[in-house]
Amino acid sequence: MPAKEAAGDVPKLAPDLEIVGDQVRIQPTGFTGGLEGTDGITERRLMHQMGRFRENPFDFLREISLFVSGTGWRAYDDFIGQPIFYSGFSEKMKSSVASHSALVSKIEELAELQVKTEEKEGLLTLTSPASSSSNGGRNVDPRTRRKEEIAANLREVVDTMLDNMICKMESKSFIRGAYYVTTQALTRAYHQGIHVSSEEVLRLRSVAEEAAKKKQSIVFLPCHKSHVDYASLQVICYRLGIALPVVVAGDNLNIPLLGSFLQHAGAMWIRRKFGNDPLYHVLVQAYIDTLLSNGHNFECFVEGGRSRTGKLLPPKYGILRYILDSVGSGRVEDALICPVSTQYDKVIETESYISELLGQPKQKENLRDFISASSVLSLKLGRIDVRFHEPWSLREFITQQTTRIHRAPTEKNLMSNIGADERARILRTFGYRVLSQINDASVIMPTALVGTVLLTLRGRGVGKAELSRRVDWLCGRVKEKGGRVAHFYRAPTEQVVERALDVLGPKLVGRTVGLAEETFYVVDRFQLSFYRNMTIHLFIPEALVSVALYSRVKQGGGPSNQTISYDELLTQVSFLSQLFRGEFIFPPEGLTANLEKSLLGLERGNVIKVTRDESNVPQMIELSEQERKCGRENYDFYCFLLWPFIEACWLGTVSLTGLAPPLADPENVWVDMNKAQNNAQLLGKTLYHQGDLSYIEAVNKEILKNSYQRFEEEGIIITAKSKETREPPTMRLAPDWTPERDPETGKLLPHGKLWEFIRMIAQSRREGKNRRDGETISSRVLELSDTMGRSLFQNARPVKPAGAGGEVELSSQILRRRTIDTASKL
Asked: Which of 80, 591, 619, 663 is deepest in the core (most CB within 10 A)?
């Protein structure tokens, strides 16, 4: 965080961006925190408060007239990119998509399959006379005529699907009005506007100019935290004079009035689930091919849905696969990938997120809820920071990846000789590269700094001075890790903290006055964790080392009793890394390199002491003397970051013990997977209120779901899904992971593979009210889990899982199919 500076003592800075009318100018201004000693990253607030009729009728009417007349940049005439917002744009796109060779071939194929089916079932009479009048006077045999009829019907279906799907950017008058309405709403909710880096947007304009000359698309791949994400990037592109991207959006938002508005502003509607509809798959690919081959900018959210937890979610590969296929197949020459980070002081939807994560069903979107959001627009939610990673060539990326597998491709189809597994690996690398670059581009907001500090301190509350000191310390750690802190315009730390507390509000952070010092305390830990999770990606390696070392620190005693060998540390860090591989985005260097780098960083910060041999190889690790003297505050910070996630995994694993079939039931019994996860959440809430679980965040529905995904991949549980019905998936414990029962009492016995797995997690778990976690689990907690699990077996199905006699897929088949399906369409 910038320190207090005397007037005139201003360092030489890079220029800032000033947008005046339709011109882009540069001028000096402040900077955003980065690595010490480097040039600052300048920024500018793109969106200012707009005139309100009651406050200043003249300014309000003047703004309206400027937008209606399209004065200056508001006309949106000289934007960079391919032509959009002209009459006939939608029909042109529909015609191009409908004539796409793959779509034409798929219609022909489906028509042929239908004719063969009708022939097989005796529904088509080949000897019936042909009707020449209905075929332009041509004599056509019944089979051909029937095939043409089916193809015509399919084309009508495609036309309807296209009309519902494609964006309809037809009118500049409409988009000028949409921009005005959107900025009016945003400036009332986010009163400090949208901020961008000057260097990044100037670079983006330069890239856009080159792309326009080559008729190439810029594919924006933002993170997704809020519905506001859609609006913020469109506002930036409009304000900077860059062609608006076509935005992929789930059709759950295609509700009356709002859906039409968004579609004419650039939304492309797709189904939430494509199902087994081959025509729809090809139609989506054909539309994306058409957009990219014509150089239209494109946007989709790499995580799929919105993150309810504040951190990045694993990539969703659906639309990424289509983009990769467009370029990898050679149908599109190239596209430029631009990862985008959007960060908020406060996210409008966090309260609804918390309800969902605590087990409440997700509410279906409707217009009334969007209208009722107008009450939110009177709040002061701070600012939005949008950052753009440097765009890169998708064609070069594919060439680089395929060269690693074979020699450099010589054909136009870059992946013609690549197998299914390799294609899936390239797609996965693509997704995680984008996520990593989003993290690299992100800035840490003041609310995230304050929320992180409050959730990583011991005790009931903290004074203002101590809170400011720890925020300063955290800013230093962020910069050391190569992260960036949001622009504070050289405001003193105390002022920044006060501003963040005001934005978070009393429902999240309370104040106690009338004391010797004003004291702050956490009111809603669950909701505040959303803001803590915005910083966690920077410190995952250090946090893993710290909680692995905690397996010794928690034993107490003198320093010699709290020392761990390097091999033991490596074993525990490796175990936890595997446990969380779907939860966090890890640095790409690999486990050993990341561990050594983390040890050096923690050692340099005087958090730990590392004893090395003559060859400088680490041997023993312990807390440093300095860290002990300061009350372990820095070491605790890293542990507190990861402990809630360890608790959640521990809870998920303990809940599996309740899936051991009772003695009287057959062993091959399958239970409803959704009910099992709900059961785990209820178990967690019970243990939290009884004091056996330290963190309410551990009952987070999303984290528990991810834990069960890991259990499936590790073969701890076997899942089954019906191929013929829509019944939910079922599951059971793998035989070698099923706990044994006492043959006389029927009680679960605390040993076996699952018990050892629980013990490994518990080693790094924060010590709660029971100093002997193992004994606690083996008695009361194990019995509670077993009791709750019995309810699952009352309606469980023996032998035939997930369907009444229908064909099913087991875990190994499902995981293999996912890999093949992901790759086969590339």
From this structure: 80
Of 536, 564, 597, the position where a domain reaches its end is: 536
Domain presence at residue 121: no
Q: How many other C-beta atoms lie within 10 A of the C-beta of residue 750?
A: 18
What phi and psi, each to the nearest 5 degrees, are found at residue 380?
A: -110, 95
Please, which residues have CB within 8 angstroms of residue 509's CB and are 6 or more apart in sequence? 450, 454, 501, 520, 521, 522, 523, 528
Residue 503: C-alpha distances to residues 239, 463, 509, 776, 786 (Å): 26, 18, 10, 41, 44
Q: What angle do CA 574, 577, 579 make, to 5 degrees?
A: 110
Residue pair 552/562 in contact (Cβ under 8 Å)? The answer is yes
Cα–Cα distance for residue pair 85/238, rounded to 1 Å: 12
Are 735 and 623 part of one and the same domain?
no
Query: What are the tens digits of pLDDT across the range 388-411?
Result: 999 999 999 999 998 887 766 667
Distances (CA, A) of 293 to 216, 230, 826: 7, 23, 17
Q: Which regions of 617-755 does DSSP assign to beta strands (E)? A: 618-623, 669-672, 717-722, 730-733
Give the CATH number, domain containing residue 469. Answer: 1.10.10
Residues 188 and 377: their CA atoms lie apart, in Å, by: 5
Looking at the fold, whether 666 and 616 belong to one and the same domain comes out as no
Domain boundaries, position 233: 41-79+169-245+297-441
Judge if 361 and 418 occupy the same domain.
yes
Determine the Cα angle at 98 with ends 93 and 104, to 5°: 155
Degrees, nearest 5: CA angle 282-288-292 = 145
97 in a structural domain: no
540 to each of 115, 268, 426, 593, how far by Cα in Å? Answer: 58, 36, 25, 14
In the block, residue with structure tokens 């000033």: 18
For the chain, what is the domain count?
A: 4
Say how far apart CA 95 and CA 98 lie, in whole Å. Answer: 5
Q: How many CB atoms lie within 10 A of CB 273?
A: 9
614 and 562 co-located in one domain:
yes
Q: CA-to-CA distance for 552 and 737, rounded, in angstroms?
A: 27
- Looking at residue 139, its amino acid is N
Separation of alpha carbons 72 and 74, rounded Å: 5
pLDDT of residue 368: 55
Any domain includes 86: no
What residue ranges of the chain have pLDDT lower than 70? 1-73, 125-140, 361-379, 407-410, 488-489, 665-667, 723-726, 768-778, 795-826
Q: What pLDDT does 335 receive? A: 97
428 & 478 share domain: no
The pLDDT value recorded for residue 22 is 37
- Strand locations in 110-208, DSSP E? 194-197
Q: Are 465 and 581 part of one and the same domain?
A: no
The torsion angles phi and psi of 27, rounded to 5 degrees, stand at -155, 155
SS3 content of the chain, % helix, strand, coil (to 5): 50, 15, 35
> Is 93 within a domain?
no
Residue 732 and residue 797 in one domain: yes
Q: Both 515 and 557 in a single domain?
A: no
pLDDT value, residue 135: 54
Which single residue is written with the structure tokens 């899982």? 801
SS3 198: helix
The reported pLDDT for the residue numbered 207 is 96
Q: Which amino acid is at 777?
A: I
- The 10s digit of each residue's pLDDT in 485-536 is 887 667 889 999 999 999 999 999 999 989 999 999 999 999 999 999 999 9
The Cα–Cα gap between 740 and 749 comes to 6
As a whole number of Å, the end-to-end CA separation of the chain is: 46
Last residue of some domain: 441, 465, 481? 441
